Amino acid sequence: MTDYKLPNNALSGKVILVTGAGDGIGKQAAINYAKYGATVILLGRTTEKLEQVYDEIESAGGPQPAIIPLNLLHLSEEQAHQIAETIEQEFGRLDGLLHNASTLGEMTPIANYPVETWLNVMQVNVNSAFVLTQALLPVLRNADKASIVFTSSGVGNKGRAYWGAYSVSKFATEGFAQVLADELENTNVRVNVINPGATRTKMRAKAYPAEDSNQLKTPDTLMPLYTYLMSDESLEVKGERFNG
Ligand SMILES: NC(=O)c1ccc[n+]([C@@H]2O[C@H](COP(=O)([O-])OP(=O)(O)OC[C@H]3O[C@@H](n4cnc5c(N)ncnc54)[C@H](OP(=O)(O)O)[C@@H]3O)[C@@H](O)[C@H]2O)c1
To answer: Fewer CB under 10 Å: which end of the chain, C or N?
Structure first.
């Protein structure tokens, strides 16, 4: 999938929301979706980072993006519905939703895992994705062909010592994606999962501080897969899990 070639207008006319769009893989995905013609809604918690991505997209001549500064740790049901309402008013529909934002929590044994951190990781990585997805389903149903992509991890289907809440949250993400994919099987909304694999980002550096990051792939190498799953080329692809 890394050398998958898509036409330059593969996402033309599509409206795609990316969570965690200010940094790492989400930033690259947002820039890349715009490059292929999508109007991107940049959701993240650090406004300056979102503004940088916005500027980068604008100066590259992409469609004008939108920014939603939001800390998913505090996302309420009401806020999620407000986001859906705004998208409905502005665009009438949502064609793509990339659930990318996540927090690593602590790398520590379960015996010592801080309860508050555990709850926060579950809130950001799982609960907020549920609340946001539920609120956005009607606008996704308004699209002709919509795609939801969840982001898992190598520890999302095989547990590993010290990965604690992050690993468990990714198992939950995969479970959620499977339930949703099955429920939406005969609708216009398809659901798939990407495990990006080891990628050069701040999260990876936090998990592996001693590693030489120059040996890792960069987020841009994942983009053929990320773009494919948002494009109409993947219309028949449902309930699948991809490794980046
Ligand atoms: N990198 C890897 O090797 C790897 C491997 C497997 C899976 N993944 C998955 O890939 C996805 C992207 O990871 P990454 O490596 O690109 O991580 P990253 O560089 O840390 O970027 C994560 C992004 O999510 C945002 N975010 C975190 N917590 C948030 C919150 N509470 N509310 C709103 N936004 C929040 C961050 O915002 P700020 O910039 O403001 O902090 C950041 O923009 C994640 O789901 C991760 O689990 C990554």
So the answer is: N
CATH topology of domain 15-197+223-243: Rossmann fold (3.40.50)
3-state secondary structure 97-132: EEECCCCCCCCCCHHHCCHHHHHHHHHHHHHHHHHH
Q: How far is the CA of 26 from the centre of ligand 1 (A)?
A: 7
Q: Where are the domains of the chain?
A: 15-197+223-243
- Note if the pTM is more than 0.90: yes
Q: Residue 40 has what pLDDT?
A: 98
Place of tokens 């599509």: 14
Residue 2 pLDDT grade (very low, low, confident, very high; cuts 50, 70, 90):
low
Residue ID of nearest Cα to ligand 1 atom 19: 24
Which tokens hold the place of 111? 């015996």
